[in-house]
Structures are given as structure tokens and as C-alpha cells.
Amino acid sequence: MFMRIDHIGIACHDLEEKIELFSRTFELTVVAREVNEEQGVKEAMLHIADGEGGGSYIQLLEPLSEESPVGKFLARRGEGVHHVAFGVPDVADAMHKIKEKGVRLLDERPRHGSMGSEIAFLHPKDVGGMLTELVQAVTPVQNVKKVHM
Ligand code: MC0
């Protein structure tokens, strides 16, 4: 079902500060920035490698409000890993198969994610305490880099 780790989402208070830290420390490049109102985040994707069906990234997330998922996470736990996202070939199909196994989906239908992807979240309590995201990357990674750099 999973092709690769698409990204690790890291919650932070100050996106610009953490972009500077991660790009300087790990020599990573920001390939996309986005404000996702639906998810309540301002985010940046730092490219690590290319893999089957898309790339893999570190995703830095700053909340748009204290009531958003990332805002609540920061208040409760502080900065750190917020979720792990896996690349899947077909997000609707993966959602269907996972739901049949008794895992709660946090989304009833795929939503808009980073870089044109389609995404869905699984309840952390049903998968070992890890907020898990499914990602169907819709654009080949080379094109994404051209569009967003
Ligand atoms: C909450 N919990 C977590 C967690 N957030 N566990 C692991 N990782 C997290 N990130 C735990 C709480 O500690 C609590 O456990 C339990 O889950 C239920 O929490 P809750 O009180 O219902 O807390 P809420 O209201 O904050 O909701 C948590 C929930 C929510 C995961 C349902 O954040 C959600 O729907 N997230 C999915 C959307 C999302 O995160 N969007 C932001 C990234 P205890 O033991 O205390 O009961 S958007 C994104 O990343 C997009 C742009 C992309 O990748 O392209």
C-alpha cells in the first residue's frame, strides 16, 4: 500500500526561523511554500530525495491560529514531529482499504495537500499514537520543482 515516506510534518512556531535552521543544518532546499486555509497552516516543503510516485520531504508547519490542529498540538506538546505521511498510488483506494480494517479516518473524502497532492488523515489513536497521513502526489516531482522554485 505504501510506496515511500512522502514527508515528516514538523510543527513550529516560526516558519522562517525553522526553514533557515533546516536548510543550513541539513543542506536542504525549499521547493514549495503554501498557505493551506482548510488545514490552518502555513508550510514549506524541503526536498530530500525522489522515489516511487513522488519525492520525500521535510514539511515545516506553522499554525494560522491557536484553534487549528497544529496550533493545538503546539500548545499541548510544543514543537516537534506532528505527523508522518506515506505516499500511496491511489488515496481513495487506500482510505477504503484502511477503513475496512477498523481504523478511523479523519477525512471522509480526500482533501487538498501540499504541491497539488490529495491527502487524508488517519486517527493517531488507531495507529499506535502516530498521526498518519496518506498522500497521492498528482504531479511528477521534477515538474513540481519547476513550478514551485
Ligand atoms: C492529537 N493527538 C495526537 C496528535 N494530535 N497524537 C499524535 N500526533 C498528533 N499530531 C492526540 C491527542 O493527544 C489526544 O490524545 C488524541 O489525539 C485526541 O486528540 P483531541 O483532543 O481530539 O485533539 P484535537 O482536537 O487536537 O484533534 C486531534 C486530531 C486533529 C488528530 C483529530 O488534529 C486532526 O484532525 N488532524 C488532521 C489534520 C491536521 O493535522 N492538519 C494539519 C496538517 P489523548 O491521549 O490526550 O486523549 S495539514 C498538512 O500537513 C497538509 C497541508 C499536508 O501535509 O499536505
From TrEMBL:
Enzyme class: isomerase
InterPro entries linked to this entry: Glyas_Bleomycin-R_OHBP_Dase (IPR029068), MeMalonyl-CoA_epimerase (IPR017515), MMCE/EMCE_epimerase (IPR051785), VOC_core (IPR037523)
A Pfam cross-reference name: Glyoxalase_4
Superkingdom in the source lineage: Bacteria
PROSITE patterns registered for this protein in UniProt: VOC (PS51819)
EC number: 5.1.99.1
Keyword check for DNA damage: no
Keywords: Isomerase, Metal-binding
Molecular function via GO: metal ion binding; methylmalonyl-CoA epimerase activity
Keyword flag Metal-binding: yes
GO BP, sorted A to Z: L-methylmalonyl-CoA metabolic process
Domain (VOC): residue spans on this chain: 4-137
Similarity field: Belongs to the methylmalonyl-CoA epimerase family.
Protein name: Methylmalonyl-CoA epimerase
Protein source organism: Nonomuraea terrae
